[in-house]
Design brief:
Blueprint: H1 22-29, H2 46-73, H3 79-106, H4 115-121, H5 132-157, H6 162-186
Helix pairs in contact: 2-3, 2-4, 2-5, 3-6, 5-6
């Protein structure tokens, strides 16, 4: 724990000694209880984190909608296997959106589900795709965009908001799997 308000070094102790000021933590916990899990030791800029979360929420919704459309529009020789993959990814993207919305509420914010701004807030684009290969390609591009933007968010969060960082790390791992799946489909290894 690196918070100087709850951990201190007593005189004569090395700088690496761990001393927990439980009494101070207890007193601080009684203050501002209306802020729920956001305590005085929360080190991130909450408004920035809420914006990042809401933009990622929009990204996940756009990805869910794109995968759903592709699921229903998949046609061709390998379309059944590819459509199944699209449906699975749509479900996982929806789960990501739910995780992000839950975290927004935990931090005292409001999840922004406004349909009119989803597209402009999303990191990835909503591309319909002309055929099955084009749909796979568009999904791969969108996953690669999500991977890079989520990595940047993870870097920004660092140790300032470990819980939100872990949520993004969990989502990032799945986005990397999705990108790998789409790359495999493009190379003809599945289907």
């Amino acid at each position: 724990m690196s918070d100087s308000s709850a951990v201190s070094t007593a005189p004569g102790q090395s700088k690496d000694a761990f001393v927990l000021d439980v009494e101070k933590i207890r007193n601080d916990a009684r203050q501002h209880m209306d802020e729920g899990p956001v305590t005085s030791t929360y080190a991130a800029d909450r408004e920035t984190v809420l914006k990042l979360l809401n933009d990622a929420l929009a990204t996940e919704w756009v990805c869910t909608l794109r995968y759903k459309r592709h699921y229903f529009m998949a046609k061709g020789i390998h379309s059944e296997a590819v459509a199944k993959e699209f449906a699975e990814h749509a479900t996982e993207e929806q789960e990501h959106a739910d995780m992000l919305a839950e975290r927004i509420v935990q931090l005292g914010g409001s999840p922004d589900f406004a349909p009119d701004s989803l597209k402009s807030r999303s990191h990835s684009e909503y591309k319909e795709g002309a055929d099955l290969i084009d749909m796979i390609r568009e999904n791969l591009i969108a996953e690669r965009i999500a991977i890079d933007t989520y990595r940047e968010i993870i870097r920004y969060l660092g140790d300032k908001d470990v819980t939100t960082r872990r949520i993004f790390e969990e989502i990032l791992a799945v986005e990397e799997e999705h990108a790998d799946d789409m790359a495999d489909l493009l190379e003809g290894r599945n289907g």
